[in-house]
Description:
Elements: H1 2-12, E1 19-22, E2 30-34, E3 37-41, E4 54-65, E5 68-71, E6 77-80, E7 83-95, E8 102-111, H2 119-123, H3 127-130, H4 132-140, H5 151-183, H6 191-194, E9 197-200, H7 207-218, H8 223-233, E10 234-237, E11 248-250, H9 251-257, H10 259-279, H11 287-290, E12 293-294, E13 301-303, H12 304-311, E14 314-317, H13 320-330, H14 332-337, E15 342-344, H15 351-357, H16 360-370, H17 392-417, E16 426-431, H18 440-456, H19 459-463, E17 468-473, H20 481-497, E18 507-512, H21 517-523, E19 529-532, H22 544-550, E20 554-557, H23 563-570, E21 575-577, H24 585-593, H25 601-611, H26 621-625, H27 641-660, H28 662-674, H29 681-693
Parallel strand pairs: 1-8, 9-10, 10-14, 14-15, 16-17, 16-19, 17-18, 19-20, 20-21
Antiparallel strand pairs: 2-3, 4-7, 5-6, 7-8, 11-13, 12-13
Helix pairs in contact: 1-29, 5-7, 7-8, 7-10, 9-10, 16-17, 18-20, 18-25
Amino acid sequence: RLAACFLDSMATLNLPAWGYGLRYRYGLFKQRIAKEGQEEIAEDWLEKFSPWEIVRHDVVYPVRFFGHVEISPDGSRKSAGGEVLNALAYDVPIPGYKTKNAISLRLWDAKASAEDFNLFQFNDGQYESAAQLHSRAQQICAVLYPGDATEEGKLLRLKQQFFLCSASLQDIIFRFKERKSDRVSGKWSEFPSKVAVQMNDTHPTLAIPELMRLLMDEEGLGWDEAWDVTNKTVAYTNHTVLPEALEKWSQSVMRKLLPRQMEIIEEIDKRFREMVISTRKDMEGKLDSMSVLDNSPQKPVVRMANLCVVSAHTVNGVAELHSNILKEELFADYVSIWPKKFQNKTNGITPRRWLRFCNPELSEIVTKWLKTDQWTSNLDLLTGLRKFADDEKLHAEWAAAKLASKKRLAKHVLDATGVTIDPTSLFDIQIKRIHEYKRQLMNILGAVYRYKKLKEMSAEEKQKVTPRTVMVGGKAFATYTNAKRIVKLVNDVGAVVNNDPDVNKYLKVVFIPNYNVSVAEVLIPGSELSQHISTAGMEASGTSNMKFSLNGCVIIGTLDGANVEIREEVGEDNFFLFGAKADQVAGLRKDRENGLFKPDPRFEEAKQYIRSGTFGTYDYTPLLDSLEGNSGFGRGDYFLVGYDFPSYIDAQARVDEAYKDKKRWIKMSILNTAGSGKFSSDRTIDQYAKEIWGITANPVP
């Protein structure tokens, strides 16, 4: 999603830049909700062919797995043997907005050649073994994020990562050499002034040893020259501080699959250690945690994030809070060696898709009141709406546009789930990947508490309640059990609440199936309150928070990721804040371990209501147990749901009150849109271009 916004901005800013990825035949998965909860089925997006892609049979590169390292008499080294697959390019053109420029997203498909098809075996009836390599090639681009609980799964993921890196770098080098004659003198030292490679998280880390291999083994450079070129070419964006997402690959798996690249990684590690010992004696004690290789005898691994930081010329985080955490915590030791290496680049979203296209009614109003449509490519112009924030005419138009979007959303919900929702109720939405740190569990516990209180109210008391429709959407990773339990719980709560005649005029709970960009384009414009409630310090940035805010939706959230900056831009009064701050989290976890946490009675009440069987017979004990106890694996409420629950419920009560004052609410909505200018991906990409890549606009004349 982020990369899609970035490509849109690169093209619109006329930058000479393009993207590389893999052409996944079955995508992630299509989510279906059954009685048992989430089911995953293969995505069929390529079934009827894609009209946007252009297959490039003339752009094919060999990618080698396994094999061994051959040493020639002169001491030079080369990969040999193993299995060789071909990477075939498919180009997806990305047009810029109101430019003549189109850039390309080049996606690789994996193929085996006709020579690898054993005709003799096939004619002998050995069909599977005759096409073994073809079958292995198909696996590489079958699925995004294949399950990695097994050794086979881990190997396949590593294959995917290397396949992307090797094909893309061979392509980049081919283009550089092709243009040598007319553009540059052909010196490899000029490569970094012509090429910048941005590694989007740790998944493309293998670009580092592979670029080194190509320069040394294929182009004949020595180590020092190849390292200089690689270091000046490659930059790294960190997208997470979650320990399980900072990739660590088994050294034995790496050595088996990529023997030459593993040699290069070992040499990078050795030279880094030597550099620290010779230039920074004071850091020697930190080397074990800073090195690229973790050689612990139990489980020797390659730490991909460390490899990125050691090798890249620039490292950036994706929101101010996140970048500060990188500098002060995760990568603090490296900062003392390379203080200038670390930057912040707050994420952004494209206003073309996320307002102009997905919310035509609101777009027209914005253009009318600003007296220009230039905001679509200069989003800072939205601040011009602030002076009309109290204008009654604008209020009326704004409310009408929001109602139109809410009706469109209600139709989608009816079509997708069969549930009827009331467009005059407060539309409260949380859509994002299901993960314990994103705390959809807190949201549903809040809805359960609300339901219980409604059940206890008299008819007169209910009249004073702000009617609310709570919507949750997102995919849970196929093997992430607790995330799948959360999906089931939302559905089970909805089944009871929505069919309870005493309450369903005041509360509905709906799980939106198969969340994706097309669904988001309907949900975001129709949303009035959006929940971005991750444990502080755990969400690197988030970008859906920006999309909601841009569409005049008010956020309830913690001081996490880009929420911090959104609140600064839209104004503290137009953001519902709750929860612990990032710098308190470690201390609160320690308090919990020491038995000092006292749960709020409302939190206990909500959990008990689920345990009582009100929402069906499914056993939610393992899910609720993650919130119990003070320590231990899968216990001790690591994500602080219990600690933040009381301030969350209080903030939701403030939301209910604010929504009753329609004038105040619409003003808050207008000021959210008006404060969203900073969060254009045009601003983000302009900063990458100037401060990391060193490139300027190159418009087609």
